[in-house]
Structure formats: C-alpha cells, structure tokens
Amino acid sequence: MIPLLIGNLLIMTVFYRFGRSLMVIIAHLLQTSGLTMIFICIAAQKRGVVFFIVTLISAFAMNLATPFYGCVTFEVVSYFPSICLTFFLAGQAFSGLLTASLDMILVAGTICFVVSWIQR
C-alpha cells in the first residue's frame, strides 16, 4: 500500500507542476527499471539475499508505477469522444472475463490430457 500511496502523491505533484506527458514517461521508466533490475539479477545468476533485495526493490518500483499507468490510461482515453470511455471500461471487463474463461479452458484441457495420457 505504501508504494501506491507514494505513487498517487507523485501523480498529484507531476500533474500539477509539470505536465501530463511526463506521467507517461515516468510510468514507463519505473516499469522498465524494475524489469531491468530483475533481468540483470537473473543474467548474473545472483541468488539468495541479493536476488531477494533486487526483487523487493523492483516490486516497489512497479507498484509505484501502477497509479501512473491508471492515470495515463484514462488520460489517453479522455482525448477521444466520451463514448470511447464506455467502450474502454467495457473492454477492460470483457478482457478479464475472456482471460478467466481461457484459463479455465486451458486448465481443463490440460487435466483431460494428463488423465487420458495416464489411462493409456
């Protein structure tokens, strides 16, 4: 919760002091820095405490980017007519439903495949 709170405070600061386009840059930089830290840690084959600390720092950075992504997404949609916001919100719900349905189908298919393979 603390990274999200800090992210929301940063959004207010960036939004009122600088500009909206800076939020997009900050969101992508935070996300990229978190993924880069994890990639470097895995490529260097660091284990134990180093990997744990890098994972915690990158999780903090990515959670900090979450409010920026939400704000940036609605900012982009606000440039279009208001009907687009309705389609955007419905599209988010539909994509969640589609993802959950496909997950259930794939899990059921995997279970059926394993059971049929065992019964041979």
Structure description:
It is a single chain. The chain has 120 residues and is an all-alpha fold. It has 2 domains: 79 residues, no CATH class; 39 residues. Helices cover 88% and strands 0% of the residues. It is built from 4 helices and no strands.
Keywords:
4 helices, transmembrane, mainly alpha, 120 residues, 2 domains, transmembrane helix, single chain
Secondary-structure-based class equals: mainly alpha
The overall average pLDDT, rounded, is 76
Identify the overall geometry.
Answer: flat
The total beta strand count reads: 0
Keywords: Membrane, Transmembrane, Transmembrane helix
How would you summarize the topology of this molecule?
Layout: H1 2-17, H2 20-43, H3 49-77, H4 82-118
Helix pairs in contact: 1-3, 2-3
Keywords: Membrane, Transmembrane, Transmembrane helix
Transmembrane segments: 20-42, 49-70, 101-118
Short description:
The chain contains four helices and no strands. By secondary structure, it is mainly alpha-helical. The longest helix is centred in the last third of the chain and has 37 residues, at 82-118.
